[in-house]
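Predict the 3D structure for this chain.
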Amino acid sequence: MAKVSFKEYSQGQGVLFPMSIDSKIPENSPVRLVNRIVDELDLTNIDFGYKGGGNSSYHPRMMLKVLFYAYLNNVYSCRKIASQLEQNIHYMWLSGDQRPNFRTINNFRSLRLKDNIHSLFIQVVYMLVEMGYITLKEIYIDGTKIESKANRYTFVWRKSVERYKEKLEAKVRGILSQIEEGIAQDNQPDDDPPTPINSKELKQRIAAINKENKTKKELKQIKDLENKHLPKLEEYEQKLEIMGDRNSYSKTDPDATFMRMKDDHMKNGQLKAGYNKQIGTENQFFIHYDIYYNPGDTLTMIPFFKGFKKSYEELPNKVCGDSGYGSEENYEYMEREEIEAFVKYNYFHKEQKRSFKNNPFIQQNFYYNQKEDYFVCPMGQHMHRIKDITRENKTGFVSHLAVYKAKRCDGCPMRGSCHKSKGSREIEVNHKLREYRGKARERLTSEEGLRMRSRRPIEAEAVFGQMKYNKSYNRFRHVGIDKIKMDFGIFAIAFNILKIHRKMTKKRKAAKKSSKYSKIHLFRINSSSLNQKARVLSFKERILEKAAA
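Done. Predicted structure below.
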């Protein structure tokens, strides 16, 4: 049996010369890419934020390198980042073996980057343009709901607050009517609607009553108004002010709105506090992002593109999105800004099915005579316009609709299949939206539309999948929309850097592979060139013979 030998092992072995950390970092490591990209960034705005004097500060370029590399490796906690600076050689190399504690890292992230992270993100996007990965001429947009850090059962609902406020106002009006002399409410007719009372008005009326002589009962009622009802009224007003145009918010994160999430842990459609995150991608890179309070995607598109234009001074030529963005207001905006919109509407996929096309009772299948302005029902009746109505959304956009009604539906054999209303059938038609949908249908079914639609699932949706499941970024770790935008900005930059590294690695492997295979291919050709030439010639001869015959 041969003698077994082991390599020398000694934990206390010293070295004559100090070891360089750089020699331990692989050349193709993503940490080197992070280092190179951050070195190219302009940090003037961040430098201006330092006042100077006192103790020296850690260099912002070093802090950025550490943060980007940490987010690239799914490390989002400041405590874990500080721990990596003591244990991981890659972090040591980036920081120059400097070791800021978790409070320093958190302060830099929250205070220094809150107003500057988006400008850094824009710089990285322009780097991508220079590298040839993106063009900013084509964008794929999509939205997802991300749960907030807020507690799950801290909701405040608009309807509840308004109901309690109305009850309190009625109670306050009753008390004031009893203790005020000569007040108009005592002689007010019962059919007059009660006027709302705010906290400012209540204070004024209490002050006016205090100047008058009061009984013991009246003094007690005034005391209840001042100490009990007035603070409660101020509380309700404050809640409605925080809520704004939303229907709910969280007590622990007032910027968050309660909305339904796809990843419902209780599987019962439970509402959770969260935000609506909108992204724009190209070639699976983040090129724009924003975060909104409202749960729907419809009202976010125009602010999203306004932010895009503010960042890059121009809008993309083409946009692709799902049916959540297919509103009249959005179509009108994209047409006005000369954006070629490949945006679906709510029943685009339904109308492609045979069951939809062959259903004569669906409003979209009714024949419309544009010249004489009437629709034709399945029984051949002319449905003429009876009135025009307008509707206004939350942004103030006004839609104009026309109402068409059949002359008579009594005795129609198809009435049960056509509609279930008591009178004759009425339909509401938005002619402008109908025209926009027709244009969208043409674009979506064109060759370019099919290409854009086929790419959308591997663009924004794929990025969301990587973000939530590969990068474990499925819940916000901060409170407040400003800090959330800051945190996601860091993540978006780190995500883009990682994507650059993967594409460079893939390109490098493909180059090595192609060079290897090309040698093998050449060797095969040289070794059997005569046989290959014979096979090619015989094939050509057969083709010529068939053509001649």
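DSSP finds 19 helices and 13 strands in the chain.
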